[in-house]
Amino acid sequence: MNNINFVTSRVVSTWPIENSTKDFSLNEEFPNSTIDDDADSFIEDEYIFDRTDVRAIFITLYTIVFCCCFFGNLLVILVVTLSRRLRSITNFFLANLAVADLCVGVFCVFQNLTIYLIPSWVFGDFLCKMYQFVHSLSYTASIFILVVICTERYFAIIHPITCKQILTSTRLRLVILGVWITSAAYSAPKFIWVETITNNLGDGHTETICIQHRMKYNSEIFDMVNFVLLYVIPLCIMTVLYARIAVGLWQSSHGLQQMGHTQCCGAQKNASATTNKSGSSKKNSKNQEGRNCYHLSHLSRNVLRARRGVVRMLIVVVLTFAVCNLPFHARKMWQYWSSGYQGTSDFSALLTPLTFLITYFNSGINPLLYAFLSKNFRKGMRELLFCKFHGKRKSDNLILLNRVGGTGLRRSSTRSTRANCSTVTVAPNADS
């Protein structure tokens, strides 16, 4: 294969950035041996992944991430599907996020690991394309779903009336369908750009590699667009919306405290006046007013606690996504724009798989975040693991707050299709 520059899987890439569109260029995951322009000599340097301790460490880390991605997200999908208390619009979105993360575990994690441990791609041309396609699909769908969740929470908490009128359950499901279709369309070119090629190493030895054909697109422009369009802009949007939600929750908390104090003081004054007029026969009515006042205050605190719990969990999920995907984008920018990047160093050989590993770790940590930050998710997971799902009970009824800073509370059943737009729904004894 004359006049073809590419990088195989046994020596750190020395492919210059300015020549990245010449003939073929290997995807940056494939790090190792080079073949010169005449394909006459094969140079093999000491490869850090030939060390047993390094291989053992990465196999262990990748296995842990795979187990979290596969079993954790499968558990989330089953819990949201089977648990009545978790059948809300927000949790429906989180289940779709779990589907994207599950695809990462199935199609990306171990496939990426084999690139560094096995000299040749062994999964065939279709899985080569699927590996790149699902990697792009899951990331694109995840960031879009997080933006949709943030937008839905913003309208549900800040503009509940608009939410009821516009963000119906049917429309939100259509939005999620549109997210998957858009993500698939955005990632579809991977099936055109990615292919396997076989390199003749001489002496009857061949090596198959999974590469992106960079004659068909400009990788620098594509990665820059990805960084801005699918990282910077969505995070800026979510930062603004969650900041507005936080302000709205604080104002709601302050308003409910004042409302409770005013209603309780008014109830006590009315009860005192009635008692002065009617004597001891009205003491029971006074006690009842006091109990109602305490009950109203208790319900208000429960609603606010649930709001804060849900928003806190979503903010942590977004921050985790931003932190885990930043090293991948930072390495790309460093590789393209820094003159100090050395593809032949052991540091670069370890940095590339570590950035992929951290990205995959984001897909595996989300179920753990739900378990730690949501009491209802913990209950649903325990019920699923111990097969203790029951039918609907009276205690499953929800308490809804009509509006932010509203003037009253009302009870509603879980059967309401627009309950999620009534700001927040919480179980009487649940935090989130």
Automatic annotation (TrEMBL):
Keywords: G-protein coupled receptor, Membrane, Receptor, Transducer, Transmembrane, Transmembrane helix. CDD domains: 7tmA_Trissin_R. It is found in: Membrane. PROSITE patterns: G_PROTEIN_RECEP_F1_1, G_PROTEIN_RECEP_F1_2. Residues 72-370 form the G-protein coupled receptors family 1 profile domain. The chain crosses the membrane at residues 56-80, 92-118, 130-151, 172-193, 224-243, 310-330, 350-373. One of its GO terms (cellular component) is plasma membrane. Residues 271-282 have a biased composition (Low complexity). One of its GO terms (molecular function) is neuropeptide Y receptor activity. Pfam families: 7tm_1 (PF00001). Residues 271-290 are annotated as: Disordered. Belongs to the G-protein coupled receptor 1 family. This is Allatostatin-A receptor-like. It comes from Papilio xuthus (Asian swallowtail butterfly). The lineage of its organism: Eukaryota, Metazoa, Ecdysozoa, Arthropoda, Hexapoda.
